């Protein structure tokens, strides 16, 4: 009798199969770790074009692919791990320089931007819950149901805060672009409590609630978080469109 339980649909091993590898960080972004507590049905859901013209994973990759490529260029990687063919951006590298062309399939109109951002946010929450579970064995608790509903069942809309950097990215993080990892509470400027979490991934810093919160919880969170970020970040915003994120990490060009 198996003991596994899916972190997403909460099915047991007797009910669903757990044969395929569920990468917590997409393989084409260099991800090497996978979560054993994701059933095949849920794993395939995140990789399939069910609600959108792209999968949740593809939306996540579009948001991180450019900055990863930029970091790889600046860090002289020894080997190439993973590669993602974007459908929205044409990235060319020549003699250590990168040129970025926005393809016609990427639209700046509001409905498209909002939809893509919605899918990206669901992917970000997915990455978080699967890594939390993989690293700390947490995530089955009822308090995380809002994440399951949002990421797996597309119910509701959860906020994601994006913090705008004012200083560059630490070399140690740049070096991780080849095989990016998600570390909790690594930097002093990352603030987390029992209701909110902040993560840094490929140079981008995001904050979001991990359970039901009140307006007051949110205000307190922002106050505490801003304090820690003085001198490192300019400001924050709730992302509504994918272009609210500095997907090309413009700070690296400076
Ligand atoms: Zn499942």
In short:
The protein is α+β, with helices and mostly antiparallel strands. It has helices spanning 40-47, 56-75, 110-136, 145-152, 171-174, 215-229, and strands at 22-23, 34-35, 89-94, 97-102, 161-165, 196-201, 204-209, 233-238. It has one domain (22-253).
Give structural notes.
The protein is an alpha+beta fold. It has one domain. The protein has helices at residues 40-47, 56-75, 110-136, 145-152, 171-174, 215-229; strands spanning 22-23, 34-35, 89-94, 97-102, 161-165, 196-201, 204-209, 233-238. β3 (89-94) and β4 (97-102) form a beta hairpin. α2 (56-75) packs across α3 (110-136). It is globular and about 55 Å long. The chain binds zinc ion. Residues 6, 8-9, 11, 16, 39, 41-42 line the site of zinc ion (ZN).
Which features would summarize this protein structure in a list?
254 residues; alpha+beta; two-stranded antiparallel ribbon; 6 helices; 32% helix; binds zinc ion
Structural class: alpha+beta
Which residues form runs of ≥5 with pLDDT under 50?
Answer: none
Residues in β-strands, percent: 15-25%
Biggest pleated-sheet summary: 4 strands, antiparallel
Helix content: 25-40%
What's the rounded overall pLDDT mean? 91
**SSE string:** EEHHEEHHEHEEHE
Number of strands: 8
Distance between the termini: 57 Å
Given the structure, what is the number of helices? Answer: 6
Shape: globular
Question: What ligand species are in this complex?
Answer: zinc ion
Largest sheet strand order: 6-7-5-8
- Gyration radius, to the nearest Å? 18 Å
Number of domains: 1
